[in-house]
Structure formats: C-alpha cells, structure tokens
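Worked Example 4.2. Consider the chain below.
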Amino acid sequence: MDKGAQHYERFLGGDKNAIADIIEEYRAGLELYLYSVVGDISLAEEITQETFVKLFTKKPHFRAKASFKTWLYTIGKNSALNYIKRYSRSVSTEWENMPEIADDVETLEEIYLADERKRAVHRALGKLKKEYREVLWLTYFEGMSSKESAAVMKKSVHNIHTLLTRARQALKKQLEEEGFDYEI
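Applying the procedure from the previous section yields the following structure tokens:
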C-alpha cells in the first residue's frame, strides 16, 4: 500500500489530520497536471481544491486497482473535464507561465541555458495536441508509468505507448521548427 493510500485509509478511519497529509503530498503535482489539462493556473487551483473537497465530503471508495496518485489524478481530470463540458469554452495553454523547476547547476550560464531549454520545451508543448501534452506531462513531469497514464487518460497501455511515441516525435519536430536542437 502506497503512502497516499495509507493516509486515505487513516482519514476514512477518522483521522482528520490525514487529509492534510494527502493535500501536502499531492496538491502541487495535481495542480500542475490539471493546468496541462485546462490551460489556466487559477482554474487548475480551483479544480484541485474541488478534488480534495470531494475526497473530504464524498469519501469515494479507493479500490487499489492503481496507485493512489493515479486514482486521485483521475478524479481531478474528471472534475476538469466536467468543468470544460459545463462551461464549453475553448482551452488554450500558456506554457510560458509555468513555474520553473530549479536545477542544481553550478554556473549562471548553465542556469540560463537550462531555463532557456525549459522555456523552449514548454512553448513547444503548448503548440502540441492536447492528448500529446497530457501524455508527455504525465510520463515525464509526473513520472507516471504507462499503466498509470493509461488509467488517468482512460486508454490502453498500448495506446499510451503509441501516443507517447507520436507525442515525442511531434515535440521534437516542433522544437526543430523553432530552431532548437533538443534531444528527446
């Protein structure tokens, strides 16, 4: 049983502090994942909160067919899709506004180059199809396995492998079109 599942089990058993542990453990990653789905950081924050409120109030049953993280991200994605359906508006992603992840780099030049690479990747990601952005985000930024990504995206593992291959190719092509030589 993973840490998230243990926290959730404690919460269901009456430990009200366990929900704080779940939020602390998963909030940031869920928020960034939902940002890749809806394209608006404020909306992603709102849907993340809604996801945790659902856990707290509805107490859905966790069957442990997948990891707790996969289950939680699926709940979050479903909430995001419901929001999109409800408000039927087009979603565009501004990848340039993503918070940068700090690297342990020794010189200012290396820091600058690393930041430029990240910005180029985020810009290129923003120009890809939504499915490509999503599979790349889950796999590389969230570190999910193909099986976990398949569960979140409601696709087969084979479809995820195919989608991931196509997404990497599309990202590489987009980066090359922008004049950026980047190894994927």
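The two ends are 33 Å apart (CA to CA). The longest helix spans residues 18-38. Compare this with Example 4.1 before moving on.
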